[in-house]
Design a protein that fits this description.
Elements (H helix, E strand, L loop, with lengths): L5 H26 L3 E12 H9 L9 E11 L3 E8 H12 L5 H31 L3 E3 L3 E6 H8 L7 E12 L3 E11 H21 L1
Antiparallel strand pairs: 1-6, 2-3, 2-4, 2-5, 3-7, 6-7
Helix pairs in contact: 1-4, 1-6, 2-5, 3-4
Length: about 210
């Protein structure tokens, strides 16, 4: 399995924490309350294992349904980026955006558009930070909305041979004054893209080390 050194791993977590910090500032403006986000851990795992992790809902229970927003990025490396929450949390997030006064039916009608906006903010903050720090371009597609099991979403968004892809999983904590929501950002990467990513991380480390 693809791995990073401790230094590479720490550098990548630092980069993503900068990205979710930018996303938190944007989200704070939308929900009118302080939002703190952090990336406590990342991992590189096979696609099937990522689906099991995201869909875990007790040993005998049916796989948990997930709400996801995906965007395809190309440039310094190619990846499908997906923001995912448990489906039962998506309306809670949309409610935060539009306020308590909106009726449930209208809220449900708004869900897809609102989640795409949140996904666009989150994914572009993470990927935009990577592009800025790596000093390389990454162009993104329009956000796509998905609801289903984690396996269905990861299969629908995987490009090329699924057997030759690895998922970079970011565990993201969202902390608001009255809410604590856990989500994931998954980057589906081919093996060649993983090595491109590793090369970019090491170029970044070399620049930082050269400046100190």
């Amino acid at each position: 399995m693809f791995t990073l050194s401790e230094l590479e791993n720490d550098a990548l977590i630092e980069i993503f924490n900068i990205g979710v910090g930018h996303a938190a500032a944007s989200m704070s403006a939308i929900v009118n309350e302080p939002v703190r986000m952090s990336v406590p851990s990342i991992s590189f795992i096979p696609r099937a294992e990522a689906a099991r992790l995201l869909g875990a809902n007790g040993q005998d229970a049916a796989p948990e349904r997930i709400c996801g927003v995906s965007q395809h990025y190309a440039g310094a490396f190619e990846t499908e980026a997906i923001l995912m929450f448990p489906e039962d949390k998506s309306l809670e997030i949309v409610r935060l955006m539009v306020g308590e006064a909106v009726p449930l039916k209208e809220l449900t009608d708004m869900e897809q558009e609102a989640m795409c906006e949140i996904g666009n903010i989150m994914l572009n903050s993470c990927v935009g930070t990577l592009a800025n720090i790596f000093q390389r371009e990454l162009q993104g597609s329009l956000p796509q909305y998905h609801v289903g099991t984690s396996d269905e979403i990861l299969t629908a968004t995987a490009s090329g041979s699924q057997a030759n892809t690895v998922v970079l999983m970011l565990h993201i904590d969202f902390l608001l004054e009255k809410h604590q929501i856990h989500g994931y950002v998954a980057f589906v990467l081919a093996i060649s893209a993983l090595h491109d990513l590793k090369d970019q991380i090491n170029l970044y480390i070399a620049r930082v080390m050269g400046q100190t």
